[in-house]
Amino acid sequence: MQGKILIVDDEEKLRSLLKRIVGLEGYMVTEAANLKSAFKLLEKEHVDVILCDVRLTDGNGVEFVKEIKTKYPSIEIILLTAYGNIPDAIQAMKNGAFDYITKGDDNDRLIPLLNKAIEKVNLQNRIAQLESQVGKKHDFESIIGTSESIMSAIELAKKVAPTDATVLLLGETGTGKEVFAQAIHNNSKRNLGPFIAINCSAFGKELLETEIFGHKAGAFTGAIKDKKGLIEEANGGTFFLDEIGEMHIDLQAKMLRILETGEFFKVGDTKPTKISVRIIAATNRDLQQDVADGKFREDLFYRLNVFTISLPALRERKKDIPLFASYYLKLFSGKTNARVDKMSKEFTDHLMNHNWKGNIRELKNVMERAVILAEGNELTVDNLPIDLQVQSLGQQNGISAFELSSVEKLHIQRVLNHTKGNKTEAARMLNIGLTTLYRKIEEYGIS
Questions:
Q1: What is the pTM of this model?
Q2: pLDDT score at 137
Q3: CA-to-CA distance for 430 and 427, rounded, in angstroms?
């Protein structure tokens, strides 16, 4: 197990001893006699874990933890003290220390603690690497799927990306509208500019107005200084308005002005602010119906509806489900350091038979949960939420997922399959009497 350790202690003999002990474990070790030297060293060298004395000639190790975690959050720190002090220990942990141990008394704990700290650092580095790969660049090639419906949507997006046209993305929640918006931005002439996104359903009218457009100092109680809005932050780039159908109709007029003139007024301002942004909007609502109902401005709808792309629901692209499942299996196995690398056929069949009302987002959550629950290297039906198990099998067997009897029948059948028909073992696993099991088998017609 590799890793670089920094030992900070003003006692030279103790430093040398610790260096020898830690070095014998295969770690690279460097040392510093005080906090000043430690900071200088950290500016030049990468360190994974710091072993630091609490009482040093030029400062306190407990406060040192706080400074290090602020400047180098990925470094783990184990504090060493000659005097057990509970308040110090509590404060050290609050400041972000990995642990706090007493010299001499806890010698046996030092190496196991160091190993755990290194494991944490390695896991954090791995997660950061995966996240940077996933979010590095949303390009069209990174969009998962080979079904005709998603390929058609990608082709449309590729055609509109190089232009500056306003785009309206339509689709149910969780179909990947923001991923498409980012891919369009990354393939546009504005790709060096910022991509700023906001979910209009996450804020009330007043808060959404200040978030998007910003405000002047004194515009309302609590507005003690000028605030730049997100749309101004997006100047030169792309502004993505998710769930625009939830935007209050009063704010829609301000969005219309931006689309028509490239100008807007901050809350409390008397002078317009000029910007250059590309607008991409998305919604899961029927905006035409909202226009007819007076909930959405007709003029704004036609301004947004320059180029429309409809994203298919996951249930409409069944052949892509295994591709998503494999992608998320790999992603979450890496994030959790789990050694799960395959899915049972029954597990995949359940995924294929599910309705996925929450679309890709729901599948992502299910896969994350399954990886966490997995006990071996293969995902099984037992790792799925019970409602998904019942709904999926219920569809196959023509029974309701909402009936308690349906749940019980399917659970008993699965346990019997697991025990290869051994009813005594099945009754033990179900924690019911053998007579009760026979009665339920007859009642439900289980073969």
A1: 0.61
A2: 56
A3: 5
